[in-house]
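Entry type: protein chain
Record version: 2
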Amino acid sequence: MRFHSVEKDIVEINENDKRVSIVGTVVRKNTKKYSMIIDDGTGEIEVYSDTLFNIGDLIRVIGRVFKDENMSLCINAEVLQDFSGFDVALYQKVRLMEGKS
């Protein structure tokens, strides 16, 4: 069974989440682990993916939440989208109006 993704701020992600959708900026990447650290302004999370974006890129990640060997929450990316040109301020305003942030 495939769970639907829930739009979240990184700070809101918890171990009970199955699939999440986040929008954030790539702040670090590790080509050996095929991972990126994404920051959305509320926190950072490690995202594992076959595709790595460049540091500074704004992206949306949809994926499964899991704990790594250090018991830190991470995301196994299923979908990555380039959000260059995306109006983050407007996005946050809409989320506030919807009561999601």
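Comment: The chain has a mean pLDDT of 93.
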